[in-house]
Amino acid sequence: MCALPLVVVVLKAFESGAGDAFALIWRPRIGELLVNTVSLLVLTCVISTVLGVGAAWLVERTALPGTAFWRIALVAPLAVPSFVNSFAWSALVPGFEGLAGAVIVTSLSYFPFVFLPVAALLRTLDQGLEDAARALGHGPWRTFARVGLAQIRPALLGGVLLVALHLLAEYGALEMLRFPTFTTAILDQFQVAFDSRSGSVLAVVLMGIAGTVLTLELLARGRVRHTRVGSGAVRRVTREHLGRATPLALFGLVALTALALGVPAWSLGKWLSRADQASEPANLGPTLWSTLSLGLIAAVVTTVATVPAAWLIARSRSWFAVAVERVTYVAASLPGVVVALALITLTIGFVRPLYQTTTVLVVAYAILFLPRAMVATRAAIAAVPPELGDAARTLGDNPVRAFLRVQLPLMLRGTMAGFALVFIAVTTELTATLLLAPTGTHTLATAFWHASASLDYAAAAPYAAALVVLSAPLTYLLLHGRNEESRT
Amino acid sequence: MTRRRTMILAAVVATVTALGLSACSKSLEATGDLDKSKLTIYSAQHENLTEEWGREFQDRTGIKVQIRYGDDSSMGAQIVQEGTGSPADVFLTENSPAMTTVQNAGLLAPVKASTLAQVGDQYHPSSKNWVGIAARSTVLVYNPKKISEAQLPKSLMDLAKPEYAGKWGAAAGGADFQAIISAMLATEGEARTSQWLSGLKSGAKIYQNNIATMKAVNAGQSAMGVIYHYYWYRDQALDKESSGNTKLHYFRNEDPGAFVSLSGGAVLKSSKHAADAQKFLAFITSKEGQKALGTTDSKEYAVGKGAASDPKLPPLDSLQAPKVDPFKLNGPKVISLMTKAGIL
């Protein structure tokens, strides 16, 4: 299912021969987009890593006050869609645009993807390993580099991968900041010619970049095991006292939170209070309702659909399982519009009655956001010892009953985190929704986009605020699911 | 669990998902999906204008309408892809190239003669497959603090000169701008247009749309911008927040920069509500229908016979627009030239 759009895009790009497609790839504009996309990718991934790991270390491994508060405050930026963030920044700072603007906005929006898994892992690390390193004569920095970093590597890479895939598919935030990447160029192509070959060629290049990122992550992950053999007693980590650096560290966290949450909050507040200046009053009720129902349906469908594949991947590391996993990731790095266009081609050609129905929209959401559910569900399944299911079977349960009674409850928490990620993603999705939504259906994101495209900040603010309010409770779910999972 | 059982379980879950999916979406479809009994309008025109036309038409005739919004080029291409099975009954555009695309695909039905008679002969193509519903003029918006009136270019073509590099902007990705380029292509030819586009690529700032362009000029981030007239007049009529520091410059003299673009309306050949669709076109080009151009603050020019445009606008016939045939403007050619220039 996820591979289908990829196939459609590639076929379309090479429709009139490889030579033609090559001519479309080999032109200065592509070079320009490549430089932009890659510099954004590298800079934002590095900055997100520094912010995410730094904040996670401060919160989980030092004696700074307010651990519980910071855990929430540093995940909360996930509730602010990146295009709302860039709206807030450009409404605040005139002339805020280009690479610098794009890096600032995307880093502040996406660093929680790194913070969340790294913090969860740091909390459960075994102090013993670090003590051993110290006893072997390493200083604190080398200890962190050789033991700490090695241990958090899988979590860190997973987080960075999510950031990278988000960046590749990002449209709204970058369009607003006048920073062209492959994705915004694909949207331009769509606007001038709907489903053009040139757009498909751009999408193929984008798929290539996504493939490269995924391969790099796979290579970087390596085959090293970092788990403990045998249960034994894990020594709780000791928290470092920062001494005189404490105020500085606290200031860092406060500043980060202020930039990531304070700026959008301030900007939204300002424009909400000027709602009377809006050219047209917000039509919140129906928009909120359609966003909520689409989000719920798509999140349930996606999460449930993930379970079989996640099961396969968590329980076996065959090349087939890995391939399945990676294909879903590539589809997710495509901008919504590409998947949407592929689905339109398919529905117009083969299943006409489904054209412009909610069903197709939900399928598009599932394809786009499967990896988010996958990451969480896989971890949840991995955390359920297979022996428990077998035990239930020996006690007379049939397989289905054993699954429902034993495994399902155990994986529920982690799966809920996946549900939350998908729900947030659906409510903030823009380009696929614009294209596939049935005539007359508007979501908060499309309504916001419509108002903000004419730079009517006062008209856009209520929709943005509603989006944030809708997503906020789910970040809690995210935190909760993660906590549970890390304790097992 | 053994592998086989896992597979069985996977199959069960997948089936349940599929069933759930169809059930859920059924319930939502009842409220959101396309209603085949209604007159379906694909509109690239302004939302408040289309909304007003739809509402008034519904009140007068009792015919229910539903509107899908999009942009000229993408919506035109979408209708072409949908082909004869398109759900659209009526197509409304902001500029004519997208309409020409759909016409060339052979998807438009002839517009009723009485409707064509409601607008001047210059506002419908000889093919009689669509009808003009409004018009808009190209203007140069400039910030007098950044550039004096004397320094302004005499022609749109001059903007590509090195002396203006870095001083102007345009929404080059949008259909409005592409319509202007298609007029340039018609009057100046391919070589000069290509040359001008490479000047744009190196010397102009590309903005998201006309409003962003105007706001950038207003804020002094850009000295000049190429936009359509109505954005400026609309903001002037409100609080001037986005145009208070700016003035308009009309090129006149049949310059490509004085191009007047025609918005179009058409009925799809495949329409299941052809009679109602024709009624809708008849209504929006009528004197009453054209009034909405004034009441909704759209500030576009009326094209109906005897229909008055907003008095604040300079009269349409005083703009000395270049004599191009709006019915032959070549959208695809413009897009390929812009792709070659590295703008798209």
UniProtKB/TrEMBL annotation, chain A:
SUPFAM superfamilies in the cross-refs: MetI-like
Membrane-spanning segments? 33-59, 68-92, 98-122, 143-169, 200-220, 245-268, 288-314, 326-348, 354-371, 415-437, 457-479
What keywords sit in the KW lines?
Cell inner membrane, Cell membrane, Membrane, Transmembrane, Transmembrane helix, Transport
The record's principal subcellular location, in a coarse class, is membrane
| UniProt-listed Pfam families | BPD_transp_1
The membrane-topology field of this record reads: Multi-pass membrane protein
Q: Does the keyword Transmembrane apply?
A: yes
Give the family this protein belongs to, as stated in its UniProt record. Answer: Belongs to the binding-protein-dependent transport system permease family.
Question: What protein name is recorded for this chain?
Answer: Iron(III) transport system permease protein
Source organism (scientific name): Actinopolymorpha cephalotaxi
TrEMBL record, chain B:
The residue range of the signal peptide is 1-23
| UniProt-listed Pfam families | SBP_bac_6
Q: Does the keyword Transport apply?
A: yes
Coiled coil ranges (UniProt) are none
A GO cellular component term found in this entry reads:
outer membrane-bounded periplasmic space
Which GO molecular function terms does the record list?
metal ion binding
Keyword annotations from UniProtKB, A to Z: Ion transport, Iron, Iron transport, Metal-binding, Signal, Transport
Single Gene Ontology BP annotation: iron ion transport
InterPro entries per UniProt: Ferric-bd, SBP_1_CS
Q: Which parts of the sequence bind Fe cation?
A: H46, E94, Y230, Y231
Q: Which family does it belong to?
A: Belongs to the bacterial solute-binding protein 1 family.
Q: What is this protein called?
A: Iron(III) transport system substrate-binding protein
Species name: Actinopolymorpha cephalotaxi
